[in-house]
Structures are given as structure tokens and as C-alpha cells.
User: What shape does this take?
Amino acid sequence: MGALDLNKIENKVFNIQEGGELKIIYVGEKNSYWQDVVKFIVKNPNIKYNITIKAVLWENAYFDIEAILRIEYGAKETDTYLRINCLMMSDKAQAKVIPSLEIMEDAVKSGHGATVSSIDSSQLHYLMSRGLSKHQAEALIVEGFLK
Assistant: This one.
């Protein structure tokens, strides 16, 4: 499945019916502001599923997300993971990320994690030393981050 654009998702509740993965992308530019709660609900047993939310924040962008992965009663033997990664492209951008788990079943494997980071200056310097402009180097790093 390709990545979903968080700006274009109207329903913020995802019912996970079968195994797989979901990638959601948000790009915040200028003075963009995004704040919401997104829920992922697993009701069926024996599902393996990975959820990745990635955000790239430029200029004064603000990103505030609470992502909840809920494993319902009866969803035995599920194996799920929820991750949120934010790449800050400006010192003025802000991110608040809260991944959470609500596990109602005993026999499951589930995890969650989050990172908020900026571009590593050594990566940027390396690419620029190979002839790329700063803009080209940043674009390449962002492309790699989103993959």
C-alpha cells in the first residue's frame, strides 16, 4: 500500500481487518498547523501490522498528534507496532507526538515509539561536498526519510 497524506484523511479511525502495513505522511510548510487524534483498532486475531506516521516540518509548521493503537478483546496473537517519526527542517518548527497503546487482550505482541530529529549536519555536509547544493542535499535526505 502506498502512503496516505494526513491532510487528505477525513476519517481518523482505522479498523485494521487483516495483516499488512500502513504509512501516513504529513508535510508541514510555512505556518501550517495540524492537531488531531488518530486511532487504529485491531479486533481480529492473528494479525501482523505495522503503522508508520512520518512528518516533515518546514519553517513555522506545527504538528501535534496523538496516535492510539487499540488491541480489542479477542484479538489474540496479534503482532503490531506503531511508530511516529518527525524530521524538523527548521528551528522554528514544532512537534508534539504521543504514540499510545490500549491493549485489552493478554496474548499479543505490540509496541510503539517516536522520534523527533533534525537533519544531521554531517550528512548535509557530505552531500554538499559531493557537489549538491544545500537545497538538493536537503531534498535527498527528506526523500530518504519518507521512504
